[in-house]
Design brief:
This protein has twelve helices and eight strands. By secondary structure, the chain is an alpha/beta fold. The chain has a single domain, classed as TIM Barrel. It has an eight-stranded parallel barrel with strand order 1-2-3-4-5-6-7-8, surrounded by seven helices. GO terms for molecular function: nucleotide binding; proline dehydrogenase activity.
Length: 304
């Protein structure tokens, strides 16, 4: 019961604009620096290089969401373009992940698509891939509709499907052939649209993983759950699914020994690396996901 209460508190905090604004003044404190790779492109590229040296692939995420100013959305677009250019300039192994609410989705749909096209054009020129992060349920259908529109011109873009949503299986079926990052989900959603019990979320997670793999589509399994990872290993072996059709993904700063172990076993392992000053919402959702993350954060705070 306590875990549920603390989860709701952190999810509420993640969406609180006043707290988010205050957090930008605090800097990367309260353990956040352990899971966020600094606030500049340079600091993020440095972390990517370090992880590449250990055999890990990466994806960079310039933090920020729910932008309601065209000026800020354009600034975010430019920053994402510069991130892709820096990845190419320094020759590091990293994709880019973006949130469309950071690029103006809540302001104007066409404006957001224009910004996405700028980013995808840069990715195309630099031979890179862009992952559109899935946000809360209210943006789910919009995200998938825009993805399909973008895919008419660009093949270097994919998205994320969250297994806690009731619609997840149907979405995976409709996105056959598209690279998907499959996750459990980190937003607070109502029982009308999302499973509320971990067992149900986990069962649906394995269901959509198997479904996408068997369709021959590229699948990114984003999980820190060792049980899920073991089941995936067993499933791909039993079904003769080649290792170049999937990858494991984990968040920067979490389960680093397991990340390295997967690399040593010959699996592709990608680390999701967030960076930037707008870190509070992301950090609160990580604390909400697992009670263990709270002690992890406090340890980071008091070790400084």
């Amino acid at each position: 019961m306590l875990d549920v209460v603390s989860k709701n508190v952190f999810l509420y905090a993640a969406q609180n604009k006043a707290l988010n604004k205050a957090a930008k003044k605090w800097g990367l404190k309260f353990g956040a620096s352990q899971v966020i790779a600094g606030d500049t492109i340079e600091s993020a590229i440095k972390k990517v290089h370090e992880l590449n040296e250990k055999g890990l692939s990466c994806t960079l995420d310039h933090l920020g969401e729910f932008v309601l100013s065209k000026r800020k959305a354009l600034e975010a677009t430019e920053y994402n373009v510069k991130t892709l250019e820096s990845i190419a300039e320094y020759g590091v192994n990293s994709n880019l992940s973006v949130k469309m609410t950071q690029l103006g989705l809540d302001i104007d749909r066409d404006f957001c698509i224009e910004n996405m096209c700028r980013i995808l054009e840069t990715a195309k020129k630099t031979n890179n891939f862009v992952r559109i992060d899935m946000e809360d349920y209210t943006h789910c259908q919009m995200t998938l509709d825009i993805l399909r529109e973008l895919r008419e011109t660009y093949d270097n873009v994919g998205t994320v499907i969250q297994s806690y949503l009731h619609r997840a299986e149907q979405d995976v079926r409709s996105l056959k052939g598209i690279s998907l990052r499959l996750v459990k989900g980190a937003y607070k959603e109502s029982p009308a649209v999302a499973y509320q019990v971990k067992k149900d979320v986990d069962e649906n997670y394995m269901n959509i993983i198997k479904l996408h793999l068997l369709s021959g589509s590229y699948t990114a399994i984003a999980s820190h759950d060792h049980t899920i990872i073991s089941k995936v290993k067993e499933f791909v072996k039993e079904n003769n699914i080649p290792r170049d059709q999937f990858e494991f993904q984990m968040l920067y700063g979490f389960r680093t020994k397991m990340q390295q172990s997967l690399v040593q076993e010959g699996y592709k392992m990608r680390v999701y690396i967030p960076f930037g000053s707008d870190w509070f919402g992301y950090f609160m959702r990580r604390l909400a996901e697992r009670p263990q993350n709270v002690s992890f954060a406090l340890k980071g705070l008091f070790s400084k």
